[in-house]
Write a structure and sequence with these properties.
The structure is a single chain. The protein is α+β, with helices and mostly antiparallel strands. It folds into 2 domains: about 80 residues, no CATH class; about 280 residues, no CATH class. It contains 4 helices and 24 strands. A hairpin with a 3-residue loop joins strand 18 and strand 19. Helix 1 packs across helix 4. The radius of gyration is 24 Å and the shape is elongated. It starts with a helix and ends with a strand. Bound molecules: calcium ion (4 copies).
Length: about 375
């Protein structure tokens, strides 16, 4: 009986453990290895951080982000306005250690109440193809608890290419530093619409130049309540961007390591917020969580400067354990190509379903 239970547990291990991954390197690094995707929303630092050069495509821009962030380089990448995102991975899956924070993500928040909160998403390479094309979950943050009714779940936004880059000479009533008020039109799925403004400090186009489409949509995610107030005047703007309590990137200074660290135990379904148990994370995504423009300081945009696995040795050990489990089961079930069911019983006349053959998943349709 005991043997049978062990067998069942081990086989279940086979089915989930295949997604754990580590690169074949002599020494693993706790820092970002590769940026997979850089898909910023428009913004005053877009095309400059990192810089766009003629001929660059999305792949090249992601490569430039890798150069900024990998191996603890700590150069800055800007995600632009609401929804803009970056996706990255490490040279190994990061284990979720229960009850402990798992990853540190650095922003450029200079001081308390200089917050441009970025929401963290996590994903596991379930289909084992090395690409971030698997289901995504969000890590919940303090707004899920202290701003109930003010957070919008399932929010989508579409930005359009600006019609003009030229200052029309008219003074803006919003801020004396704004050169084009109606610059980048946006529309959301809640009947809202508006414009991202252009200011005199950033003259390049704010629309990502490597994008050929005239619209960019970010969707079905979470919109945090606006956090900015101008505590000054029109002539002397003084913007306060209130820091949220916990759970966001670029929300509190990096020196506050705990506030910049994230716990995979907080994974939830993106819209329903149903908790999700995740044992390993292969891809991490960060996106700008607020849609707001703040006079001379421009749109709220999350910056990112790097990330690290907070428990490298544990991650590697857990991957090794998981892979060892897979190997022992593969041996046991590799006997002349015989078919086993998921309970470890040899099957002579299989019907439709999932089996194990030669140590691998085997589907009969
Ligand atoms: Ca954890
Ligand atoms: Ca994948
Ligand atoms: Ca920013
Ligand atoms: Ca920032």
């Amino acid at each position: 009986m005991m043997k049978k239970i062990l067998m069942i547990l081990a086989l279940m291990g086979t089915l989930t453990a295949e997604a754990q991954r580590m690169d074949d390197v002599t020494e693993h690094s706790k820092y970002i290895k590769v940026v997979d995707e850089y898909v910023p929303a428009p913004g005053q630092f877009i095309n400059t951080m990192p810089p766009y050069e003629e001929g660059d495509d999305a792949y090249k821009m992601a490569q430039k982000c890798t150069e900024c962030l990998a191996n603890n380089k700590k150069d800055m990448v800007c995600l632009g306005g609401y929804g803009g995102y970056i996706t990255f991975h490490f040279d190994h899956s990061i284990a979720n250690v229960k009850g402990q924070k798992d990853v540190l993500i650095l922003g450029n928040c200079a001081f308390e109440n200089n917050s441009e909160p970025g929401i963290v998403m996590v994903s596991k390479d379930v289909n084992n193809n090395g690409l971030p094309d698997d289901p995504w979950y969000e890590l919940k943050g303090s707004a899920d608890v202290d701003s109930v009714g003010k957070v919008v779940y399932g929010y989508s936004i579409t930005y359009s290419r600006p019609i003009t880059e030229e200052y029309d000479g008219k003074a803006s009533e919003i801020s004396k530093d704004i050169t084009i008020e109606k610059y980048i039109p946006w529309e959301d799925n809640r009947g809202g619409a508006g414009y991202m403004h252009k200011n005199r400090f950033h003259e390049q186009t704010y629309y990502p130049q490597w994008v050929s489409e005239n619209q960019i949509t970010f969707g079905e995610q979470t919109l945090l309540p606006r956090n900015a107030t101008n505590t000054g005047s029109y002539d002397q703007e003084n913007w306060l961007l209130k820091s949220l309590a916990w759970g966001y990137v670029d929300n509190k200074p990096n020196a506050d390591q705990d506030a910049s660290s994230f716990d995979f135990d907080n994974a939830v379904e993106v819209v329903s917020r149903t908790p999700v148990e995740i044992d390993f994370v292969d891809f991490i995504r960060v996106y700008t969580g607020i849609n707001q423009d703040c006079g001379w300081i421009g749109e709220t945009s999350t910056e990112i400067m790097g990330a690290e696995d907070l428990h490298l040795d544990t991650s590697i050990q857990r991957i090794k354990d998981a892979l060892a489990g897979v190997e022992s089961i593969k041996k046991e079930t590799t006997i002349n190509g015989e078919l086993y069911d998921l309970q470890g019983r040899k099957i002579k006349a299989p019907g439709k379903g999932l089996y194990i053959k030669n140590g691998k998943k085997y589907i009969i349709k």
